Amino acid sequence: MPSKDDQNDWYLTEDVEQFLARAGEFLRSRPAPHTVHLTVTETLRSRGPRIYGDADPEFGVLAGKGRGTAGVRGAFLRTPPHPVCLTPLTEEEAGALAARLAAAGRELPGVSADRDTAAAFTEAWRRRTGAEGALRQRMRLYRLGELTVPQPVPPGRARVAGGADRKLLVQWFEEFCAEVGEPGFRDAEEWADEHVERGDVMLWEASDGTPVAMAGTSPEVAGQVRVVAVYTPAHLRRRGYAGAVTAEVSRAALESGAQEVLLFTDLANPTSNGLYQRIGYRPVSDFAVYDFG
Fold first, then answer.
1. Beta pairing partners, 202
2. How far is it, in rounded angstroms, from Cα 225 to Cα 236?
3. CA 76 to chain centre
C-alpha cells in the first residue's frame, strides 16, 4: 500500500507550461516511450488547451528520489474526455497515483500506458474506487530502422495534401477515428486544417490522379516524429496503397531531420503489423488501453 508521502510526491496542475517546466527534460530524455506526451503537449501549446475536448487538460509529475532525469520519476496527462496517459511507472508508483487521484475525486474513463503500467494502474484504481477495468486495445510501438519500400509499388505516386484536399481529409479522418474506436477524438476539420497548414499529410494518388490512401505525421518534438492516421478506404484495400504512402511519409520525416520515426499499431490487426515491419519498423514496447466501468 503506497504511503501518504508517496501520494504527495505527485505534483498536479492544469497548466501545460508548468507541467513542461517540471517534466519536459524527463520526457525528452526518452522520446520514444514518451512520444504521446511530447506530441500531445506540443499540440496543446500550439492549438490551445481544449483542442481535444471541452474541459481543461490535467497533468501530473512524480518527484524523484535519486532516480530519473532532473528529479522526475514519472508523469501523466489527461485531455478529457480521454483516458489518463501515463509514462512507465512501477506498481507502487501507479498505486500511489491512483490513490492521489481517487482522493481528489477525479473521475477517469480509463488509462493508456505501457502494458505493465496500464495493468498496475487499472488494478490500483479498482481497489480504490471499485471500478472494474476492461481491456479495450493492445498496441505496439515501433521505431523505424532501415526504410524499405514494399514491393511491388502500386501504380501512382505520393504527394503532399493541400488546401484543395481539405474536404477529403476531414472525411477520411472521421472514418479513420470511427474505425479505430475513437470517434470524436479530434475535431476532424481542425485536424485537417492543422495538417494542411504544416504540410505533413501525404496522399497516394492512383495513376488517374484519384487519392486512394493517406498517412500523416505528428510535429517533430525532441527529435521524434510519429506516423499517424494511416488510412485507406475499405473498398481500396489490399492493393499496396497503405504501404506505399507510409513508406513515403516515413521518408519525408527522415529527410526533414527526424532522429526517430515512430508509429503505433493495433496488435489485433496482424496485417498492419506485418506491413510496417516489412517497411523497416521494429518493435519498441507494448501498450494497452483499459476502460473503467
1. 160, 215
2. 27
3. 13
Exposure pattern of 194-231 as b/e (b: 16+ CB <10 Å)? bbbeeebbbbbbbeeeebbbbbbbbbbbbebbbbbbbb
The C-alpha cell 479530434 sits at 186
| Architecture of the domain whose range is 144-286 | 3-Layer(aba) Sandwich (3.40)
| Contact criterion met (CB below 8 Å) for 51 and 190 | yes
Answering whether pTM is above 0.85, one says yes
| 159-168 per-position pLDDT tens digit | 999 999 999 9
The 10s digit of each residue's pLDDT in 177-191 is 999 888 777 899 999
Give CA 2 to chain center in angstroms. Answer: 29
What are the pLDDT digits (tens) for 44-58? 999 999 999 889 999
Which DSSP state fits 49? T
Q: Locate cell 501520494: which residue?
A: 7
Residue 162 — φ and ψ, nearest 5°?
-120, -170
Angstrom distance (rounded) from CA 84 to CA 281: 27
Quick check: helix, strand or coil at residue 111? strand
Cα atoms in the 13 Å half-sphere on the side-chain side of 201: 27
Can you tell me the mean pLDDT for 58-70?
Answer: 74
Spell out the alpha helix ranges (H) of 69-165. 91-103, 115-129
Three-state DSSP string of 181-241: CCCCCCCHHHHHHHHHHHCCEEEEECCCCCEEEEEEECCCECCEEEEEEEECCHHHCCCCH
Q: Of 27-41, 69-83, 89-103, 193-207, which gets the smallest average pLDDT? A: 69-83
Helical spans, DSSP H, in 4-149: 4-8, 16-29, 35-47, 91-103, 115-129
CA angle, 142 then 83 then 77, to 5°: 80
